[in-house]
Amino acid sequence: MPLSDIVENGLCVGCGLCRSMAALGAVDMVMTPEGRERPIAQQVLDKQMLMRINAVCPGTRIVGPPPAQTNGAALMDTIWGPAERLVLGCAGDSAVRFRGSGGGVLTALGQFMLSSGRVNFILHVAASRSAPMRSEQRLSFDASSVLESAGSRYGPAASLVGIGEILDRGEPFAMIAKPCDVTAVRNLARLDPRIDEHMRYALAFFCGGVSDLTRSEQVLRRFGLHEDELTLFRYRGHGNPGLNRIETRDGRAFELTYCQLWEDEDKWMIPPRCKICPDGIGQVADIAVSDAWLNGGPTIEDEPLNCIVVRTKRGLDLVEAAAEADALAIKRETSFCELSELQSHLLRKRRAVWARLKGMVIAGKPVPAVTDLALEDCALQNSRTDNLSEARGARDRARHGRLSEPPPGRVAAAKPC
Ligand SMILES: Cc1cc2nc3c(=O)[nH]c(=O)nc-3n(C[C@H](O)[C@H](O)[C@H](O)COP(=O)(O)OP(=O)(O)OC[C@H]3O[C@@H](n4cnc5c(N)ncnc54)[C@H](O)[C@@H]3O)c2cc1C
Ligand code: SF4
Ligand code: SF4
């Protein structure tokens, strides 16, 4: 598919990998009027380049863990995938626990990978220093930079722009990112051996979907603010979940609770690709980390805590070494059953996606090629009625254009980001 078709068919999630693959200046990432970062070809991409992009794009190709990993895993669940260990835990350091989104586990692991000499830098994202409501790629070479980047960035974040230059450094690194970003990099590893050579670890967080930047703009409007007044836009962290906090140049501060920020699910404003995401749970990461609100949800401030799904043996070594060095504090073992309670929205999505994709196909829409993610088995846990309703719903939404995105011409008119 040409890039414009990937975008228009609602398959793009804005990772920026296609821009990295194409010649310099051939693909731009732009912020669309909907508040999504999307690629636009600035010149005709030849067939070979398009085939390479289609092979790596996480909108067109989503591959799960290799069967050898799934079959040999210590723990296995149809919905939640393979695991070597499942624990609840948090960062060992109190400042990291506080600043982190949940329990600061990803930040603690990022810092530990650097301090133990396992990697030279962490590829992740952080709030833009010049426009703090926006998120941008960050390479962290020290603990303070990893800590500065702590916290969930719910808006668009093109984590994989410039991956070619990152690999050209020839240094060991780790990535912390959304599951679809990890999928993209694993796809790229099939074409570019430098990924397996230099990327020592891939860590992901569980992900229910990115929100459009326009969702954050709505928050500003609520307080009568303009983006250029901001010095801080923190979605959460500084507690678990912590407050959405906005600070302005003239010293004012505004706060919303997590529930006030996300109160109405219909207004989450997530792109079509997230609604059909077959793997929001980081099955191809070495470690996937989720929220763990043991008191039933984010309605109150909870203890700093994450669920840590250790997917691979490499991830297991890392978690155990980090716990040994007190970078991580393990609270207790957990189970897939508890995970289902803590992450019921992702359980429902895993069960729904197979039927949603069928509905899109019936509507004549292209869908990603998905393999090794047990989608049909997940759907079998649904009743026939539920699957029919998911398929019909997706078919109708696709027919009415609600799983599509505006054409690239309109995107081209948007301000470059
Ligand atoms: C869009 C989005 C959706 C999410 N949905 C869920 C969900 O459905 N269920 C759930 O349990 N948890 C979800 N989370 C994850 C959750 O908010 C926590 O990030 C996770 O539990 C890890 O907590 P932590 O304390 O270890 O993170 P921290 O220690 O604060 O570290 C977070 C790390 O993630 C990186 N990061 C943050 N945002 C992004 C981004 N947009 N793209 C790439 N990297 C990023 C940061 O650079 C940082 O390194 C979501 C997060 C995001 C950003
Ligand atoms: S998902 Fe990533 S690789 Fe695919 S079209 Fe969008 S930005 Fe490009
Ligand atoms: S829901 Fe899936 S596609 Fe959307 S941002 Fe999360 S991992 Fe990526």
Automatic annotation (TrEMBL):
Native source organism of the sequence: Rhizobium loti (Mesorhizobium loti)
InterPro entries in UniProt: Co_F420_Hydgase/DH_bsu_N, FRHB/FDHB/HCAR-like, FrhB_FdhB_C
TM stretches of this protein: none
Pfam families associated with the record: FrhB_FdhB_C, FrhB_FdhB_N
The protein's name in its UniProt record: Coenzyme F420 hydrogenase
Bias (Basic and acidic residues) ranges: 387-396
Domain Coenzyme F420 hydrogenase/dehydrogenase beta subunit N-terminal residue range list: 88-158
Coenzyme F420 hydrogenase/dehydrogenase beta subunit C-terminal domain residues: 173-332
Record GO terms (molecular function): 7-hydroxymethyl chlorophyll a reductase activity
Residue ranges of the region described as Disordered: 386-417
One BP term from GO: chlorophyll cycle
